[in-house]
Description:
42% of the residues lie in helices and 18% in strands. The protein is of the alpha/beta class.
Amino acid sequence: xxxxxxxxxxxxxxxxxxxxxxxxxxxxxxxxxxxxxxxxxxxxxxxxxxxxxxxxxxxxxxxxxxxxxxxxxxxxxxxxxxxxxxxxxxxxxxxxxxxxxxxxxxxxxxxxxxxxxxxxxxxxxxxxxxxxxxxxxxxxxxxxxxxxxxxxxxxxxxxxxxxxxxxxxxxxxxxxxxxxxxxxxxxxxxxxxxxxxxxxxxxxxxxxxxxxxxxxxxxxxxxxxxxxxxxxxxxxxxxxxxxxxxxxxxxxxxxxxxxxxxxxxxxxxxxxxxxxxxxxxxxxxxxxxxxxxxxxxxxxxxxxxxxxxxxxxxxxxxxxxxxxxxxxxxxxxxxxxxxxxxxxxxxxxxxxxxxxxxxxxxxxxxxxxxxxxxxxxxxxxxxxxxxxxxxxxxxxxxxxxxxxxxxxx
Length: 409
């Protein structure tokens, strides 16, 4: 008869063999706070109120998308619990909400928190806690600095990339331009202005004849537009968020000022900017974009947009397909789900960041053809491509090739 030791060894070998052949979900599962066999907790911070409340639909869109995912069985059998708080576009309140999400709600990570100032306020905290601040909804370049902040990653193209692309277009089309710039007095506006100046190079000093900044707390920027028009500039850069973008377009039209007009992508939504500003006032305005425009019927037969429209009809019928922020939230939610799928049963915060930095040519349904998401350990800029657009009639019309900003490593 075999000894007790021999029988134990045989049983142990059999167990190892069984694990090797069949796999052991128990042995392979790794969880950090916020994840379990049944749940993945995701936190979010969004300006549902305040001067940037137009962006609040991004949070509503993501909530609806995760509801659909849960109805379909979740991700690897786990349901998403999405906890989204309002910070009113206020950095101190963003800090308060981030602490609440991490320390009280105990989320696995915070996804798509919106706003440059708000994310700047929580960046050091999130990195000190080693909690992913993932797919930040702002194009500030600092949110792709992987060496300094390895737990933070942006999503949309960096503002500096966008500014450089506008400069390249201007130098080609109007090299003798006299430029007036209106920029939001925070990292968003300053970042895009830097990109514009970098793109113009040595000519920036002579081409830019006026710079005017505004605070998000200002009720209106109309007086700034009057001041800029008085400089006799023939080219205008509006580095503004939706509320102020619409005000600038209306006031310029009211004054009869018709410069070559560039509008920052974040304030170029048809639904929340161009329509309230008056379509007639926006004709010929230029911007750059990376996503399909829900207001453009040219995309009606596009397979990705058909999925998007079907989703809206079923899960978010109250949201406007013409609002660029709606498509934005959908694309971000799809990217978050892709990261979670890649993470499998290793739902640790470190693996979430590893998977976010391992996206290869991922194409959410709402991105323009040729624009994809790719990241690496040294490239925390998921989307780094744009195409120029011109507002015509009631929609944006694309022209020119896909252009890369080349900020990634």
